[in-house]
Specification:
- It is built from 6 helices and 7 strands; from the N terminus they run H-E-E-E-H-E-H-E-E-E-H-H-H.
- It is of the alpha+beta class.
- The strands form 2 sheets. It has a 4-stranded antiparallel β-sheet with strand order 4-7-6-5. The chain has a 3-stranded antiparallel β-sheet with strand order 1-2-3, with no helix packed on it.
- A hairpin with a 5-residue loop joins strand 1 and strand 2.
- Helix 3 packs across helix 4.
């Protein structure tokens, strides 16, 4: 947690199962990462970032790791992911699991382990489309079986598949940024709305002083 607090600009989630969105800044206050971070327990966190930037980020993590006490492991080759979203996403998830996924039981920016078909999946209530939605991460060997379960459960609900261009259109309409087009080292968090996730009041983190100077220079 101490290492992540120095690395990322947002506060760390306090409770297990809570998720936060956080930018990662360099010393000049520019964006070098944007992540979804979930606390699993007292000592473990699950971080999701842009796949195209994984090698870049892993090098960044390696340079900043303390001499001991912290380990970072890439799960990109071990896990696959599915995203379901739309007005009936909750109905679809409920058909895939025995867990209570009502709004009161499973709120926005929460994460839980659930049995989805043959797999134990890490499910987060979050959506890149801006609608009600969930992301689920599970061992890649269960990908085909879980995909079949999603299709079968979704058929009576009117489930359709969407492609990357449709997803891009939806996230732009919502105002969600993406690594490359809106997020990258050439941008500051004040140019794309990530400044709302910066917590200047917490202990020192990389880029805090530079970002604070930028903030003070903005028109009031």
């Amino acid at each position: 947690e101490a290492w992540l607090n120095r690395l990322l600009a947002n506060r760390m989630p306090v409770e297990a199962g809570r998720t936060v969105l956080s930018p990662m800044l360099n010393d000049s206050g520019h964006i070098v990462g944007d992540f979804t971070l979930t606390r699993l327990d007292q000592e473990r966190f699950f971080m999701v970032g842009s796949g195209v930037a994984e090698r870049y980020h892993m090098r960044w993590f390696s340079r900043t790791l303390p001499a001991d006490g912290v380990a970072v492991e890439s799960r990109a080759d071990a896990l696959c992911g599915f995203s379901i979203s739309g007005p009936r996403a909750r109905d679809l998830l409920a058909a895939l699991t025995d867990e209570d996924v009502s709004n009161d039981a499973f709120r926005f920016l929460r994460s839980r382990e659930m049995t989805i078909g043959p797999a134990t999946a890490r499910v987060m209530r979050i959506s890149f489309t801006g609608e009600l939605g969930y992301e689920m991460y599970l061992p890649e060997e269960h990908q085909v079986a879980v995909f079949g379960a999603i299709r079968a459960a979704g058929e009576p609900l009117g489930l359709v598949l969407i492609g990357g261009r449709a997803l891009g259109s939806l996230r732009i309409e919502k105002g969600y940024g993406s690594w490359g087009p809106e997020y990258g080292p050439e941008y500051t968090p004040f140019e794309n709305g990530l400044d709302r996730f910066i917590r200047f009041e917490k202990d020192d983190f990389t880029g805090r002083d530079a970002a604070r100077r930028m903030s003070n220079e903005l028109p009031q």
